[in-house]
Specification:
Distance between the termini: 10 Å
Number of strands: 6
CATH superfamily of the largest domain: Creatinase/prolidase N-terminal domain
Shape: globular
Amino acid sequence: MNMAGIAKARRSRLAEAMAEDGVDILVVYGNAWQGDYLRYATDYGILEGEGLAIVRRDGHTILFLDSPLEAERAEVETSGIDIIYASSMLTEVEALLERAGNSRIGAGPKRLMPQRLASRAQDLGIGDRTAMMDRLLMKKLDCEVAAMRAAAHMADEGYEMFRNAARAGRADYELVAEVEAFFRSRVPNSAARSSSIAMRLKRALPRSSPGLRRPTLPAPRMRFSAVTASAIM
């Protein structure tokens, strides 16, 4: 899967959509639990803290992150965008929008905007561009469809390995380590993405009593596949 190529195609498509909708600046919010829109705009899967992307119609994108660790990881994982660590992220983004002058600003999705920005939507002229972003997310490019198929195939292979590795008496960290090693071997030069898969898998596993043990039965097939595919895409 050529993720760099997919990211480039997505940014080009997003710029075209902004031009069609008359949007000069798009504000995109994301966190670990609501990250699809941010990932589409930046090709970055956030794991901790919060992020805000400022996307201009010409494709120039700035990703603000309030976690120094996330900012470091983003510098390694992404290309073609500017990364800014900002402990006062909302203050900096708010100031940037105030300087935007007569630019037409959109938010996608607007419902996820932090309260500080949402409360100023009218005087900052922030319009709702959720529908625009949803169209991009729902109608896949050919390269996205191919990547999803490849991710599903890899998830099937990973599930088989996971099922064989989930033996009685194993600690959860041993299982997660083996899963992570598998995906590292299948996705060269993508340690961060495989770590993301492992972290999401660990969250998906059922909780147990202290002692770092997990139930011996493997996770349901569909849930494992969804975890894997979402981390890759």
